[in-house]
């Protein structure tokens, strides 16, 4: 298994939970985290666009 950066430790533990059969609960959490990350990324891109 490849090395995982610290910020992805939570996601990795969620994946372990999914393997243990907690699929339904963790899918929602994972989607929420992914959406949050996408939103942050989008905001960052928007900020970069407005730089003089």
Main traits of this protein?
52 residues, mainly alpha
Tell me about this structure.
It is a single chain. Helices cover 73% and strands 0% of the residues. The protein has two helices and no strands. It has helices spanning 9-19, 23-49. Helix 1 (9-19) runs antiparallel to helix 2. The relative contact order is 0.10.
Alpha-beta classification: mainly alpha
Task: Name the beta content range.
Answer: under 5%
Give the proportion of residues in helices.
over 70%
Supply the number of helical segments: 2
In short:
The chain is built from two helices and no strands.
Helix/strand layout:
Blueprint: H1 9-19, H2 23-49
Helix pairs in contact: 1-2
